[in-house]
TrEMBL record:
Enzyme class: transferase
Source species, domain of life: Bacteria
Official protein name in the record: peptidoglycan glycosyltransferase
Reactions performed catalytically: [GlcNAc-(1->4)-Mur2Ac(oyl-L-Ala-gamma-D-Glu-L-Lys-D-Ala-D-Ala)](n)-di-trans,octa-cis-undecaprenyl diphosphate + beta-D-GlcNAc-(1->4)-Mur2Ac(oyl-L-Ala-gamma-D-Glu-L-Lys-D-Ala-D-Ala)-di-trans,octa-cis-undecaprenyl diphosphate = [GlcNAc-(1->4)-Mur2Ac(oyl-L-Ala-gamma-D-Glu-L-Lys-D-Ala-D-Ala)](n+1)-di-trans,octa-cis-undecaprenyl diphosphate + di-trans,octa-cis-undecaprenyl diphosphate + H(+)
A matching Pfam family: BiPBP_C
Amino acid sequence: MIRFRCFFLIFVGVPCFGQGLPKEFINEIQTGKVPSFQELQSNYEPSEGTLLDRSGEHLHRLRLDHTVRRLAWTPTSEVPESFILSILAQEDKRFPLHRGVDYKAILGAIRDRVFGGKKRGASTITMQLAGFLLGSKPGQRSYSEKWNQMILAWKIEERWSKAEIAESYFNLVPFRGEFVGIRAASRGVFGVDPSSLSSEEAVLLVALLPNPNIRSSEWDRRGCWLSEAIGSKNLCEPLKETVANLKKRKVFWNTESSLAYHAARRILVHREINGYKSGAVRSTIDARSQLAAEESMNRILSSIQERNVREAGILAIENRTGAILIYLGNSKLSKENYFVDAIQARRQAGSTLKPFLYALAFEKNLLTPESILTDLPREWELIGGSYRPTNYEDRYFGSVPARMALASSLNIPAVQVLDWTGVPEFVSRLGELGFDKLRNPDFYGLSLALGTADITLWELVNAYRTLSNEGYWSEPTFDPQEASKNTEAWGRERNTRFRKVYPKEITQTIKDILSSRDNRSLSFGWENHLSTKFFSFAKTGTSQDMRDNWCVGSSGNYTVGVWVGNMDGEPMREVSGVTGAAPLWKEVIQSLEEMRPSSNQEVHMARSSNSNIKRSIGLGNAEAPKILYPETGSLFALDPEIPEENERIRFEARTNSKRVEWILNGSVLESDSSNIYDWKPKRGSFILSVRINGAHISDTVAFQVR
């Protein structure tokens, strides 16, 4: 027996060195092709795919084939010696000697069948392997199938080594139930990988092969017979104890921690990485960032669940490369809809599309950031009726500059801007930004300015990424190789992988507007979750009846988008973009900047003041007036001890012009004033603007008097 054991181990290289196969591969074999061992390995498909992060860390294991359970290919070096010897003793005693067909075994089987002896099989390991490759079912093979099996077995023996045949058999042989191959069987029955099997466990696995549904008493009896056959009688008692213990405990399928279920489905099922077929695949996702974002999501959702908020989605993309760093399709706190991917679900956009509308208007020279827009209730007469939009909470601010109307998300000015640009042209521009499922412009009308279109978080985040990338658009990617190509193209031939949508100066203007606390103070105040300690710009949005809540924005390096709501469309209670999605957005983008700090800082202006815009508002070479006092957000109180006719608030502007024009709530106070003006106050909310030479407004502030 010792000589027999050594002979076999030398032949299969231990320890010195159908199923789970594509239909096309099996079809080629059935037509006569004999694959190489390497071709078999490359075509082997586990029933589960494994998603890795950018550094190779485990993210998620996802089952792809629910008919069988196959795991990663197991090399012979990880297979216990007791398993190999048991297979040999039970399935093919003369495996090291024959060339694919054991004639002696065949003659013995024929003799037993003719003379009524004990029925036994005569298929060798190589013949069984040939059956797996031909896709034939065990126990249901006709004589012609047996003959084809023998022919393929001869050919395999001519081309493959015994070690390659044995290793292939170990990975393709079916065990109990759905388990195929030694790794699935050892994990499914004993909860360990093949390399961790004890000798008695290895023997018991082999004992399952003739009868997978074997009873416990027969299982340990057969196991004892096998242990004697391989010269290990001392295994019999431990083997019986193992079977007894196995009946007392449940072996659960060992699933590793899941950090990216929804990303795994997109990559492993939809094959969104070029060349991926099966097994493990590395992605662009950053495991640390993904985990931190998930913790923030669960904590913040828990804090607002009482407002009927159950679900959320987070997507983060690296600006230059398009690499997807965070992909959280939903919260594990969601009991009913966790498996629904909120990043790909279509929801109403709310106010999140307004930056793209204003950018289009700036590009067409229809207005500038300082152009005054009227924020008062009004109607638009349309064919078949009229359209009367309202502001959030029915608050109106009169005359406001475009930059404040955009950043403070005022609805009436946005509808006016869309009326100027035209709905068809805006729909076309949104299509260039990747919103490719929009309906006919007539379907939306002017309501498109307020976000009545159904969009995905995927589309929205990538569109904001375009603003960060100087107006260049490209597809986001999970593929590290594609991300590297984007980096190379950005520095050399940008147009080969990026599409120009907006001029650089227009995107810079939008970023400046959305990054300013002054500009958004009308609606959101000075302190809110849109302000960060590094440069960033952001926009929120809430759909009708508070069904969807968005916050999306960008730093110099990353663009992050958050959706908060309920997948079944049930409204939230008293949740706006600033209170719902924005806190989560801020935590995620700050975490990204802290864990993966910027290598290049964004250069930006406090206000849109580039030469093109300066010329467009009619200043020529004059210095644009800047209001020094009051500041935006100032609050004044009338003093009851001072006579009303004596109270004044001083307006002061800095300019090299001797004469300026002060405008309050759209009305000119004085057309030929100095840079200082003393105004008699009254209670209310006010927008103060200044200009020179009859040009466009150059600066605006907002304040209140009580």
